[in-house]
Protein backbone atom coordinates (compact mmCIF):
# COMPACT_ATOMS: atom_id res chain seq x y z
CA UNK A 1 0.00 0.00 0.00
CA UNK A 2 1.38 3.32 -1.04
CA UNK A 3 0.29 6.58 0.57
CA UNK A 4 -0.93 7.79 -2.83
CA UNK A 5 -2.70 4.51 -3.49
CA UNK A 6 -2.93 3.01 -6.95
CA UNK A 7 -2.15 6.37 -8.57
CA UNK A 8 1.23 6.51 -6.85
CA UNK A 9 1.93 2.89 -7.79
CA UNK A 10 1.11 3.62 -11.42
CA UNK A 11 3.37 6.68 -11.42
CA UNK A 12 6.17 4.64 -9.85
CA UNK A 13 5.90 1.83 -12.40
CA UNK A 14 5.62 4.35 -15.25
CA UNK A 15 8.89 5.94 -14.09
CA UNK A 16 10.53 2.51 -14.02
CA UNK A 17 9.28 1.68 -17.49
CA UNK A 18 10.36 5.09 -18.78
CA UNK A 19 13.81 4.51 -17.32
CA UNK A 20 13.94 1.13 -19.04
CA UNK A 21 12.73 2.54 -22.36
CA UNK A 22 14.89 5.68 -22.41
CA UNK A 23 17.46 5.56 -25.20
CA UNK A 24 21.02 4.88 -24.19
CA UNK A 25 24.03 6.22 -26.05
CA UNK A 26 25.50 3.59 -28.33
CA UNK A 27 28.68 2.01 -27.05
CA UNK A 28 31.14 0.17 -29.21
CA UNK A 29 30.51 -3.55 -28.93
CA UNK A 30 34.02 -4.19 -27.62
CA UNK A 31 33.53 -1.60 -24.85
CA UNK A 32 30.78 -3.65 -23.20
CA UNK A 33 31.26 -6.90 -21.42
CA UNK A 34 28.29 -9.19 -21.84
CA UNK A 35 26.64 -10.84 -18.88
CA UNK A 36 26.73 -14.60 -18.79
CA UNK A 37 23.45 -16.47 -18.64
CA UNK A 38 24.00 -17.28 -14.97
CA UNK A 39 24.81 -13.65 -14.12
CA UNK A 40 21.72 -12.49 -15.98
CA UNK A 41 19.52 -14.98 -14.11
CA UNK A 42 20.99 -13.89 -10.77
CA UNK A 43 20.34 -10.23 -11.59
CA UNK A 44 16.78 -11.03 -12.67
CA UNK A 45 16.25 -12.92 -9.40
CA UNK A 46 17.55 -9.94 -7.44
CA UNK A 47 15.22 -7.63 -9.38
CA UNK A 48 12.27 -9.90 -8.54
CA UNK A 49 13.32 -9.96 -4.87
CA UNK A 50 13.57 -6.17 -4.88
CA UNK A 51 10.08 -5.93 -6.40
CA UNK A 52 8.69 -8.10 -3.61
CA UNK A 53 10.59 -6.15 -0.96
CA UNK A 54 9.32 -2.84 -2.35
CA UNK A 55 5.72 -4.06 -2.18
CA UNK A 56 6.21 -5.11 1.45
CA UNK A 57 8.01 -1.89 2.32
CA UNK A 58 5.30 0.25 0.77
CA UNK A 59 2.79 -1.56 2.99
CA UNK A 60 4.95 -0.89 6.03
CA UNK A 61 5.32 2.79 5.07
CA UNK A 62 1.56 3.07 4.65
CA UNK A 63 0.96 1.37 8.01
CA UNK A 64 3.47 3.72 9.65
CA UNK A 65 1.59 6.72 8.20
CA UNK A 66 -1.63 5.37 9.71
CA UNK A 67 0.08 4.71 13.05
CA UNK A 68 1.50 8.24 13.02
CA UNK A 69 -1.91 9.76 12.24
CA UNK A 70 -3.64 7.75 14.99
CA UNK A 71 -0.95 8.37 17.62
CA UNK A 72 -1.63 10.77 20.49
CA UNK A 73 -0.64 14.12 18.98
CA UNK A 74 0.44 15.45 22.39
CA UNK A 75 3.04 12.66 22.76
CA UNK A 76 5.96 14.43 21.11
CA UNK A 77 8.48 11.73 22.03
CA UNK A 78 6.30 9.03 20.50
CA UNK A 79 5.65 11.13 17.41
CA UNK A 80 9.39 11.74 16.99
CA UNK A 81 10.05 8.00 17.26
CA UNK A 82 7.36 7.15 14.71
CA UNK A 83 8.62 9.86 12.36
CA UNK A 84 12.18 8.52 12.64
CA UNK A 85 10.93 4.99 11.88
CA UNK A 86 8.99 6.31 8.90
CA UNK A 87 12.07 8.12 7.53
CA UNK A 88 14.13 4.93 7.92
CA UNK A 89 11.53 2.96 5.97
CA UNK A 90 11.41 5.63 3.26
CA UNK A 91 15.22 5.60 3.01
CA UNK A 92 15.13 1.82 2.63
CA UNK A 93 12.57 2.19 -0.17
CA UNK A 94 14.78 4.75 -1.92
CA UNK A 95 17.83 2.46 -1.64
CA UNK A 96 15.95 -0.52 -3.05
CA UNK A 97 14.47 1.55 -5.89
CA UNK A 98 17.94 2.81 -6.77
CA UNK A 99 19.34 -0.73 -6.80
CA UNK A 100 16.35 -1.88 -8.90
CA UNK A 101 17.09 0.80 -11.48
CA UNK A 102 20.81 -0.06 -11.57
CA UNK A 103 20.08 -3.73 -12.15
CA UNK A 104 17.41 -2.99 -14.74
CA UNK A 105 19.86 -0.85 -16.68
CA UNK A 106 22.43 -3.65 -16.50
CA UNK A 107 19.95 -6.16 -17.89
CA UNK A 108 18.81 -3.74 -20.59
CA UNK A 109 22.35 -3.00 -21.74
CA UNK A 110 23.32 -6.66 -21.60
CA UNK A 111 26.14 -6.00 -19.22
Structural class: mainly alpha
Strand content: under 5%
Q: Report on the biggest sheet.
A: none
N-to-C order of helices and strands = HHH
Instruction: Catalogue the unreliable spans.
Output: 28-32
Number of helices in the DSSP assignment: 3
Rg over alpha carbons? 18 Å
Number of self-contained structural domains = 1
Shape: elongated
Task: Estimate the helix proportion, in percent.
Answer: over 70%
Distance between the termini: 33 Å
Compute the average pLDDT.
84
The number of E-state strands comes to: 0
Provide a compact summary of the structure.
With 111 residues, the protein is mostly helical.
Give structural notes.
This protein is an all-alpha fold and 111 residues long. The protein has one domain (5-21, 47-109). The chain has three helices and no strands. The protein has helices at residues 5-21, 37-70, 76-109. α2 (37-70) runs antiparallel to α3 (76-109). The two termini are 33 Å apart.
What's the SSE blueprint?
Elements: H1 5-21, H2 37-70, H3 76-109
Amino acid sequence: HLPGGIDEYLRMTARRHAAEASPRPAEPEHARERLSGAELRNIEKEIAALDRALVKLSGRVNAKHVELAEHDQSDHVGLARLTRELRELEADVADKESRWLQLSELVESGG
